[in-house]
Give the backbone structure.
Amino acid sequence: MDTSKITLTSQPLEATGGETFRLDDFAGQPVVVYFYPRDNTPGCTKEGEAFRDHFEAFSELGCRIFGVSRDSLKSHERFAEKHGFPFPLIADPEESLCRQFDVIKEKNMYGRKVMGIERSTFLFDANGELVREWRNVRVPGHVEEVLQAVRDLA
């Protein structure tokens, strides 16, 4: 992916906790944006819980975390509350952010081809520049790898 093409819309997206998301709003601090297929599914829950369990370590490094899926804000609120996620989940039902990050991919679900989110994570430095990306993520060990990449920025 051509990283120079990641320019987020000036229109902020809604997130849990009454927050909105525009990358420019977080200048001066590293930001992790992770995309996941769907609220309340096993892999997505495990990934969110891993970010939750390492949240303090990310916070100590001044790093913000945002999860993104196509689910509604109401679904995100329930998901975040149920699992105690201390970071915002961004609702992207129109797929605007997903398309900017090129995470909508053809997937095979029970023999049928469908379009869905490819589990992906992006790390931006304090200058708002994309410094790392992980595509087609496997959950075990992933959050620890992202945390190490944030540590390496310091």
In short: The two ends are 25 Å apart (CA to CA). The helical segments are 42-53, 55-60, 73-83, 96-100, 142-153. Confidence is low (pLDDT under 50) at residues 1-9. Residues 67 and 89 are 5 Å apart (CA to CA).
